[in-house]
Each structure stands twice: as C-alpha cells, then as structure tokens.
C-alpha cells in the first residue's frame, strides 16, 4: 500500500515547522519567529502505530494578502491540500482565533478531505481553555498540543492515523500487477499507456510536464490484470521551478513504492541521462522488478550494430541494473509495443518467485566449493544454511558464523550464483547475513 500523505497547513507563524521537525526527528524546516520563513513545501517520512506516512510542511496561508511571495505560498499550500490524504490544520492557542483561520477553515471544508484541528502553543494546563473558541471553525474537536515542548503529540497522531483506515484499500487490487512508468518529462510515458489501453485515457502533449500527478489505468489482457501508473516526469532539481511540479516529485516516488514493476522509459534521441539514473536508482534501492524501455526508436538512423551499441552504452551508465531487460519500441508507430506487457509479466513472475530450500542450499554449497570466501580481518566466513523468507522482492537469509566477515565482492558473487541458477532477470534481490546464535 502506498504511504498516506499528511499536510500541515495554517496561517504563518503558528508553529507548523516546529511540529514538523519534532515529528521528523531532525531539523528539516527552518524555524524562526518571522512569518513566511517556510516558503516551499518540505517533506519527510514518519511512523506512528505501525503506520508509515509522508509529512509535508507548507508555507503559511494568508488569504487576504496580495504580496507575491505570500500568493505563491498560498498556491503551494493549496497544492499540498489537493494531494494530501489527511490535513493537519494548526492554529495558535496563544493568539486565539483570527479571521484568517476562518478563511483557511473554509478552504479546507471545500477540499472534502479529513482534517485534524490542532491548537498549538498550549504550554501548560491553565492555557487548555484557550481551545474552546476554535469549535467555531466548524471542523471538529480541537486537539491541544505544544510542539516546542512535545506535549499532546501522541493524541494528535492517534487522530491522524484513524483516518488512514478510511482511505481506499489498495490490497483489494492484489490480483493486479502494478506497473509504474517512470522517466523524464516528454519521453512518451502517456503515449505508451494510451497505446496499451487502445484509447486516449491520459493527456498526451509534447509540452513537458503535462502529467501532473500519478494516474492509474486498469487493463486486462491474456497476460493478466494490470494497473498502469503514469507518473509525472522528474527533471533536474535546478529545472524544477513550478510549484505543482515540485509536488509531482513526491507523487512519483510514492508511485514507485506501490508498484511491482518499474519501467524506466528513455528517449532514444537523448540516451540515458543523470536524472534517469537517479529515478531508477530509487526503484533499485527498493529491490523492485525493473525493465528499461527505449522509446522513439523509429527516429534513430540504424545499421546492424546500432541496437547492440546503444544497449551497451546504456548498460555502462546503468551498471547497477545488470539484471534489467531492455526493449526498444516506438509508442507512436506501435513498434514492439505488444512485447511490453509480456516482458513486464516475466519480470513480475521473477519478483514473486519462490525457491525450494533444499535446492537453494545445494546451489550455495556448490558456490562455496567453487570459490572459498576471502579472509576479512583474520576471520573467514562460514555459511551454515540458507532459506528464502519472502517474495516481492525475493528475500534470502544466510545463517553465518560472523556477519562482519562478509566481503562485498563475495556478496556480489553469491548474488550472481543465485541469479544464474534460478533466473531472477528483471528483479532486485534482498540478501541478509544473519549470525547463527
């Protein structure tokens, strides 16, 4: 399930960033007594009662102010509200209710999103009664906290995670294979999805950044049931100026998290860029099933070596993805598009593959006989037993005498042995070395 997104909103200087930093466990947002210090959205991961979620700190909303920076902050906060699953509305318990609070409350009511009303700066019991006037906002019972002293945060988080249960449950779609199309803007992600769906489901335009959010499309074919997730393309940070696009980056990462198969789409006329490496690197770190599609292949002048050389060049740049298969297509003309779902299904099957324990131990024993582990700091690794403990991705636990004696080159050797023996093409593997106690 994708992580829910929680946005902190309110007018400037009510303590949003102080609360955000306390929950994030580190100082991410700048905290200062000047209104408008947080001009942009900042995000961080958090966890409460076994729920993982993404928090967004927003610039303060000042409905009546026409200052250009304040206008931008208001727009950013609106975008955060539109894309958040739960909104934490923070007000100032010392200053009391203001006209701006009422305006923000009205904006939140229109959003039809779950809202948790939080009265901040209640630093001691005698200030508790300050919260009663906030019932007039008409968005539920206020919860009193002190972000600076860490008071009342548990009650607030309990209320926030209660709303997660009401969010659409993606586990109902378990029979579907989730495929995320990722890559830079304008590489043809939406065009490919439209070709696979056979209809104009996603807006296609050659203006980069047409897709603002991740869009899900359902598809059933002979190969199986699929959810195709079209994500907004991610540009280099220096080029990410428009506030809507900044927010799309979070949604793209969220799409990668909930996907089974991540397809990196590369423009054949540009080749692999540094930004492509970053995007797919995130999916690689999460050990997702991965394939690489080179689109716009019809625009390339070719001879009999063009594809081989192009693939070799890409494999050098994406050397951490040695297990990923490659496919050269043209979404515009339909060239090889019929192979996309076949390849995605093969990657998914390997992502979901189980290996019998007996066979697994035979392979690892033979691998150790062929190549003994090197000595690390006067210790030699002994592998007693190996078992597979999970799928999506396949996870193996090797019980050893001393995990500090595992050399990284030997880790790579054992992973290659597993890949060669059981065909794990197109999927990441997780391998854990556990001391036998």
Automatic annotation (TrEMBL):
GO biological process: ribosome biogenesis
Keyword Repeat carried by entry: yes
Domain named EngA-type G: residues: 4-168, 177-352
InterPro entries: AAA+_ATPase, G_ENGA, GTP-bd, GTPase_Der, KH_dom-like, KH_dom-like_a/b, P-loop_NTPase, Small_GTP-bd
SUPFAM superfamilies: P-loop containing nucleoside triphosphate hydrolases
GO molecular function, one term: ribosome binding
SMART domains per the UniProt record, alphabetical: AAA
Top-level taxon of origin: Bacteria
Residues noted as binding GTP 2 in the record, renumbered to the chain: 183-190, 230-234, 295-298
Keywords: GTP-binding, Nucleotide-binding, Repeat, Ribosome biogenesis
UniProt-annotated binding residues for GTP 1: 10-17, 57-61, 120-123
Alphabetized NCBIfam families for the sequence: GTPase_EngA, small_GTP
Biological role stated in the UniProt entry: GTPase that plays an essential role in the late steps of ribosome biogenesis.
Subunit structure: Associates with the 50S ribosomal subunit.
Family the entry assigns: Belongs to the TRAFAC class TrmE-Era-EngA-EngB-Septin-like GTPase superfamily. EngA (Der) GTPase family.
Protein name: GTPase Der
Gene behind this protein: der
């Amino acid at each position: 399930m994708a992580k829910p997104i929680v946005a902190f909103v309110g007018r400037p200087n009510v303590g949003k960033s102080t609360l955000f930093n306390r929950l994030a466990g580190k100082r991410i947002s700048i905290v200062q007594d000047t209104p408008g210090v947080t001009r942009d959205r900042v995000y961080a991961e958090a966890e409460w009662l076994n729920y993982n979620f993404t928090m967004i700190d927003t610039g303060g909303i000042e409905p009546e102010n026409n200052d250009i920076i304040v206008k931008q902050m208001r727009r950013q906060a609106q975008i955060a509200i539109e894309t958040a699953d739960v909104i934490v509305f923070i007000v100032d318990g010392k200053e009391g209710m203001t006209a701006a609070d009422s305006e923000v409350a009205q904006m939140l009511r229109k959003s039809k999103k779950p809202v948790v009303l939080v009265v901040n700066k209640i630093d001691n019991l005698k200030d508790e009664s300050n919260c009663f006037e906030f019932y007039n906002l008409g968005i539920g019972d206020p919860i009193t906290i002190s972000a600076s002293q860490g008071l009342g945060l548990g009650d607030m988080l309990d209320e926030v995670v209660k709303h997660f249960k009401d969010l659409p449950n993606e586990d109902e779609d378990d029979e579907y294979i989730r495929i995320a199309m990722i890559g830079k803007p304008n590489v043809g992600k939406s065009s490919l999805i439209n070709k696979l769906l056979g209809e104009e489901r996603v807006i296609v335009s050659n203006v980069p950044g047409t897709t603002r959010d991740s869009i899900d499309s359902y598809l059933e074919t002979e190969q199986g049931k699929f959810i195709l997730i079209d994500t907004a393309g991610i540009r280099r940070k220096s080029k990410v100026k428009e506030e809507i696009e900044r927010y799309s980056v979070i949604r793209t990462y969220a799409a990668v998290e909930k996907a089974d198969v991540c397809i990196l789409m590369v423009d054949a006329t540009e080749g692999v860029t540094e930004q492509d490496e970053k995007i797919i690197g995130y999916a690689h770190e999460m050990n997702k099933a991965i394939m690489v599609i080179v689109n716009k292949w019809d625009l390339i002048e070719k001879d009999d070596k063009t594809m081989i050389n192009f693939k070799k060049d890409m494999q050098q740049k994406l050397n951490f993805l040695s297990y990923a298969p490659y496919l050269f297509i043209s979404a515009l003309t339909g060239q090889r598009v019929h192979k996309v779902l076949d390849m995605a299904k093969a990657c998914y099957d390997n992502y979901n593959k189980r290996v019998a324990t007996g066979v697994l131990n035979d392979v690892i024993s033979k691998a150790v006989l062929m190549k003994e582990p090197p000595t690390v700091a006067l210790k030699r690794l002994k592998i007693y037993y190996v078992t597979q403990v999970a799928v999506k991705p396949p996870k193996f636990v090797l019980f050893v005498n001393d995990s500090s004696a595992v050399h990284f080159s030997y880790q790579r050797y054992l992973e290659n042995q597993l890949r060669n023996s059981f065909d794990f093409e197109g999927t990441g593997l997780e391998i854990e070395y556990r001391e036998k106690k």
